[in-house]
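Revision sheet: structure tokens.
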Amino acid sequence: MKALVWEGPFEMGIKAVEKPRPEKGEVLIRTKSVGVCGSDLEIFRGDFAQAVPPLILGHEACGIIEQVTEGVENVKAGDRVVVDPGIFCGRCEFCRKGTYWQCDHRGILGMQGYDGAYAEYFIVSHLSCFRIPQEMKWDEAALIDILADPLHAMDMIPLQIGETVAIFGPGPGGLSFVQLAKIGGASLVILIGTREKRLALGRKLGADITINVTEENVIDRIKQITEGRGVDVGIEASGSTQALADTLKVTRKHGRVMVFGIYSENASLDMQDMHRRELTITGSSGCPWSMPRAIDLIATGKVQVKPMITHRVNLEELESMFNDGIIEQRKGGYIKGVLLL
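Predicted:
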């Protein structure tokens, strides 16, 4: 079969590889759509230490089940599915406690230990599969994962009706947070970023105020908006260490901070300020059982994902997007790419 294979930093190309063979409890899926994630760019550059080449990337994966094996009961051949990319052992302390997404032996489809879906076929455990509605378009389905992850993060905060929220990073994750915050009853949602096109989309999707940090001092502006109090909830979804430091500064005393971004370097933070103002800081990783809710939110139109998609590509075009810097440099107004096969 044909696959886009990462072979080391800045080395990615299309190759003929053997079609994967599912083992007991696994299913073979014919790839239909895959979201292009910012973490794929981190891997491409060699900034994600857990990724070891050669590796087929692609974890925001959807497709049609072509083959099932012994022990598969919840899905069947012909089902249209999206997959939870987290892979777990089922035996360690955290799996047995029910917090399987913190598995001691966790793998991630297309990122950590397992080939992904930038290929004509891929395999996963049947436990990772969630059926999607027949009427849902494949490009929309590819963004289920990027909604399911923020849903899990929102569960961990959690947001109270009438609270104020600042979201750093108007990428697909941040734009998902904007919509979830409004659905959750936030009285004020502030979206912060550096690209006006993304901020404008954020306003269309529900952000009450946007701040372009290339034009305004974000800390001063949010202090002004909140009359010096700060926001109740700060969400860092950009992966910028400077944005993380600013998120802490604009969050009120006893406020909650969600660390959602993926970082390629350690942050320098004011620990004394965090201590003094008694901030609650929470990380979020994965989408444990939030896939079904994400599917419903997209299917019912309560969350809009299509406006985020700027590039729909095949394997050859996706190769060029990585190698020509379209994703890294956000060329052509790039926000979110979707591989369609």
